[in-house]
Specification:
single chain; about 130 residues; alpha+beta; three-stranded antiparallel sheet; Mobile element protein
């Protein structure tokens, strides 16, 4: 973890409310770190907070309920990533990482799921903006 101390310290000074999970994700996404556990990152982050006297700040967020709208006028949207196992008879059980986009009417159990391989293609981006009316 000491190899990444400078980056983590910069992040911590800029965002004192960072969690271990966020730093773990950033290490993977921004620096390509794969050989460390989330628990190790969390412990290291706590040690750095103590050593550099950077207390964790709690940023309060304001949440409020959204008024109920008629069917078809309110949607739930989410992005995510998952790893799927491909038919093992054909591919010897290899896996594929899929990035996903989900949109559904909040009154319905089913929705539209679009999956794509990063980076998001122009076609997929165009389709999403058409769906979202942008």
């Amino acid at each position: 973890m000491d190899l990444y101390q400078r980056e983590i310290l910069d992040w911590l000074r800029e965002y004192p409310d960072l969690t271990g999970a966020q730093v773990y994700d950033w290490l993977e996404e921004k620096l390509g770190v794969k050989n460390v556990s989330e628990n190790t990152v969390r412990n290291y982050l706590n040690e750095m907070r103590d050593f550099y006297h950077i207390p964790k700040t709690n940023v309060s967020r304001t949440y409020s309920s959204v008024p109920e709208l008629p069917m078809g006028q309110q949607a739930q949207v989410d992005f995510g990533q998952t790893v799927v196992r491909i038919n093992k008879e054909i591919t010897n059980g290899s896996t594929l990482s899929l990035s996903c986009f989900l949109i559904r009417d909040i009154n319905m159990l089913s929705g539209l799921i679009v999956h794509f391989e990063p980076p998001m293609s122009f076609v997929c981006t165009r389709m999403l903006s058409t769906i979202l009316g942008e």
